[in-house]
Design brief:
178 residues; three-stranded antiparallel sheet; single chain
Length: 178
């Protein structure tokens, strides 16, 4: 059923599935629900007498994430692109500065790497250096470095990065909680 702008899920049904179908302890389910709650994907409503209701606020995100992760898990090793945890700050910077750029007709944005190096500490509280893109370039997540009059630039699909980065953030938070 749907209530309060979310899709409701029974705590007891989920608990039963966790134990009987997935054969996992309920504390793992509760940890996962806390993570999803912190990401504002769902909220947990206490109904009193120890009863709870789960409201999924971002169903589309969850469906998209599960689809993405399934494709990732079943992809051939050579075509699988794994974003490393240490690459997430660089990608977050690319999303931040990409939103200030104008996309071309293919939806790609171009950012100036020296500008990011100069501005990142002030804007994001961490330094993004010019060599931090090399792994992402090798994985073809972003273009090769482009030499221009004002220095090096890279281009990338902003919409795709904006979609993928939250998935990888979620994956690492879940892995760290294990």
């Amino acid at each position: 059923g749907v209530s309060l702008g979310g899709h409701a899920l029974s705590w007891n049904v989920l608990r039963r599935y966790t134990i009987q179908v997935f054969q996992e302890p309920t504390n793992k389910m509760e940890t996962l629900l806390e993570i999803l709650s912190a990401f504002e994907i769902l909220t947990i409503e206490k109904l009193g007498e120890g009863r709870k209701k789960i409201l999924i606020q971002k169903l589309e995100f969850m469906v998209d994430f599960v689809e993405f992760y399934n494709e990732y898990l079943y992809a051939k090793e050579e075509s699988r692109v794994t974003i490393e945890k240490k690459e997430l700050p660089t990608l977050k910077a690319l999303i931040y500065y990409g939103h200030k750029a104008t996309p071309d007709d293919k939806g790609k944005v171009k950012v100036q790497l020296e500008m990011i190096r100069k501005e990142s500490v002030k804007d994001l509280d961490y330094l993004v250096d010019v060599n931090q893109y090399d792994g992402l370039i090798a994985k073809k997540v972003v273009s090769e470095k482009i030499q221009e009059a004002d220095g090096l630039s890279i281009s990338y699909d902003l919409k795709e990065l904006t979609r993928l980065v939250p998935f990888w953030q979620l994956i690492y938070v879940i892995q760290d909680a294990r």
